[in-house]
Amino acid sequence: VYGQNTVNKTIQGSTQQNFSIILKDQFILTGNKISENESSILFRDFTLGEISIQKASILKVSELKGELYVELILNDGKTILGKLASKTESTLRILTQNLGEITLSKSAIKSIKIIEENQIKNGQYLFPNPHPTRYFFGPSAIPLKKGEKYFQNAYLLSNSMQIGLSDEFSIGGGVVVPFLFYITPKFGKKISENVHVGGGILLASSLISNLNLGIGVGYGSLTLGSNENNVTLNVGWGATKGDSYDAVTNTSKTSWSFANKPMFTFSGMTRISRRCMLVSENWFFAVNEYTYDNQMKANGVKSNYNGIISGGVRIMLEKSSFDFGILSPMGVSTSAMGIPYIDYVIKF
Predict the structure, then answer these.
(1) What backbone torsions phi and psi does residue 83 show, to the nearest 5 degrees?
(2) Vertex 332, ends 268 and 306: CA angle to 5°?
(3) Helical (H) or strand (E) element with 8
(4) What are the distances in angstroms from CA 298 to CA 41, 244, 255?
(5) Distance CA 263, CA 234 (A)
(6) How far apart are CA 29 and CA 104, in angstroms?
């Protein structure tokens, strides 16, 4: 897809615009454009040097504005964090918080990553929250980027995946073995620095042929805050498919019924350390309670709000996380009961 050119030239980094190129295999190149035609880009990467990249292999090209801050992984495993002061064909000059200004040979560098200035805390790299798009299960309005995807496993039995088809739209789905499967298309858009809006659909159906179960929900989302600290309100309207019993005719039938009231979730997350976040996800939904009036000889329906509240912690690596929490039902006889929750999610 791309090959290295060993032509030796001096890089005038201070006068050239910097770019980040993400390839379809998720390989990231950072450097300067030399030239471009209809099919390829001639690019000078900070560590690989001069290379030709076929446009068919490119997922995204981003212009890097302002000063560049980098994380360098050296061949001996050491990490260097700081501002990229200057570069030549063979060296990089880095201004660090703890060591001052240092010059490194490119031959000593294993990898380079562009980071934000605020991600350097006390000489350590505070990597981004790998999963700002979701809480335990429910979504935020923050979207996956094009080409991003994650796999989630909860309780070993629940497996799901979400894929970013564009920077604002993703599609996903999953199965809860052996009961049901579902799909989860989602839209999200950033409208200001700390405001995202979005929406989506949840459609679920039973995997068991004689279990007449179905769920359909359409919802809108509002997320306030950053990827590291935010709250989300989701408001939706749903319908369920199931068996109902008619006490007068002594028969049962399968049908869809819309909720009499909207459902909503209120969730939040906040980062408390380099590898730990606090997470809460809370669902509130109307449940139809079927009644029968013996005097009037008539069926009735009463709608009450029930819910599930939860809280826990997220232990993070750069691409994956473990969630540990407690779920507590509301509005039922077991409302004081705490149900342990655990999941593993990996982004790739």
Answers:
(1) -90, 135
(2) 45
(3) none
(4) 74, 15, 19
(5) 8
(6) 19
Q: How far apart (Å, rounded) are the C-alpha atoms in residues 38 and 177?
A: 48
Kindly state the DSSP code that residue 12 receives in the 8-state scheme.
-
Structure tokens at 164: 């970013």
Q: Measure the CA dihedral 220/225/230/234, to 10°.
A: -10
Q: How far apart are CA 142 and CA 328, in angstroms?
A: 26
Distances, alpha carbon 254 to alpha carbons 212, 217, 234, 246, 340, in Å? 7, 19, 29, 11, 33
Predicted pLDDT at 336: 58
Instruction: Give the Cα separation of 263 and 235 in Å (integer).
Output: 6
For the sheet with 40-45, list strands across it: 2-5, 49-54, 40-45, 28-36, 18-23, 58-64
134, 179, 256 from 328: Cα distances, Å: 19, 22, 28
Give the residue from 246, 244, 182 showing the smallest Cα distance to 214. 182
Q: Is the preceding omega at residue 178 within 30 degrees of 0, hence cis? A: yes
* Partners of 324 in beta bridges: 313, 342
126-149 per-position pLDDT tens digit: 899 999 999 999 999 999 999 999
Question: Domains of the chain, with CATH numbers?
Answer: 2-64 (2.30.30.100), 69-125 (2.30.30.100), 149-347 (2.40.160.40)
Structure tokens at 50: 């001069």
Q: What is the pTM of this model?
A: 0.77
Residues of the chain with pLDDT under 50: 1-15
Task: Report d(CA 324, CA 313) in Å as an integer.
Answer: 5
Q: Quick check: 48 and 29 in contact, CB under 8 A?
A: yes
Which tokens hold the place of 168? Answer: 């604002």
Q: Are 192 and 93 contacting, i.e. CB atoms less than 8 angstroms apart?
A: no
Query: Identity (one letter) of the amino acid at 127?
Result: F
CA–CA distance, 122 with 138 (Å, rounded to integer): 33
